[in-house]
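Fold this: Alcohol dehydrogenase catalytic domain-containing protein
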Amino acid sequence: MREIEAAVVRGSEEHTIEQLQLDDPEPGEVLVDIRATGVCHTDFHAYTSDDTDFPIVLGHEGAGIVEAVGEDVSTVEPGDSVVLWVLPSCGECQYCRSGRPYLCQRRRDVRGRMMDGTHRLHRGNESINHFYAQSSFATMSVVPERQVVPIESDVPHEIAALLGCGVTTGIGSVLNIAEVESGSTVAVFGCGGVGAGTILAASAVSAGTIVAVDLDTETLDTMEDIGATHTVDASSNDPVERVRELTSGVDYAFECIGNPATIRQAVDTLGPGGTTVITGTSASKSIELDLGAFTKGISVIGNIVGFTQPQIDIPRYISMYKNGDLPLEEILSNSFRLDELDDAFAALGEGGDIKNVIEFEPGP
Ligand SMILES: [Zn+2]
Ligand SMILES: [Zn+2]
């Protein structure tokens, strides 16, 4: 057992930095000294929701150094540099066995706990809930081995942390889901972490035209720096009209915010045979589509974490970063300390910040 420091959320928008006890890793689990962790809208949503399982330690985009491993762990050892992946998966169901761990249904049953239904986080007799079996807003985490991906030690942890969730969701939407070809035309609606990952990957595969659509001009400037060939400020333009003027209908439209009106716009910008990939939708929302679009052979695909197989894809994206094909450093906006979590959450709503991280001092 270790004493750790963590940001414990005890009610909607109430957190304190507390000393907690973290159990040793169980078989198949890894203890990680967290060095950096991304701050994501998913954390903020849980922080501000009344529906979260309090008390909880949030954080699900961690990177750090392996401190210890439980029994039966074979892919990492103490001292390894690692990225922590967001989604737990069982490794045994039909989806996990067919290379689609993002569809694993078992993780839905383990809300607030590790995959075996128990807790590693405690404060005295009180159990503290886990977030995505990771809870990386803490100096150390215990994480299932299936979510721990070894990387080269020379990759800065603040860069590695960008690959734990949203940015990889964007990269995977281009490389794994749409399989965008060189020379094709692409529109990206909403340029936060997912949208930025989408533009980085579209640029990496040499898409011919990449149109970034957002409401914030500072964000659009950054998108030009990372590969957008055109930008559309949707606060002062009709994005469908502008994208159609620029491209006469795109091959791929990526909707990266899960907003019904924007999803409709993305579909409406497609040319014949075009594909829309939508991210971040929820069951309570719906859209109306003109079915005539389907007579032109369009597709609409739901994006779950970029169809990522973390052990295969994250090392691939790290290599692309090292080759200069994915300049992830361009989308790292600001770094905070754990005791500045409020500021880090406030920055999520500000224009211009693409990805922010919390960084930790190396442990003793
Ligand atoms: Zn996330
Ligand atoms: Zn599974």
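The chain has a mean pLDDT of 95. The pocket of zinc ion (ligand 2) is lined by residues 89-90, 92-93, 95-96, 104, 106 (CB under 6 Å).
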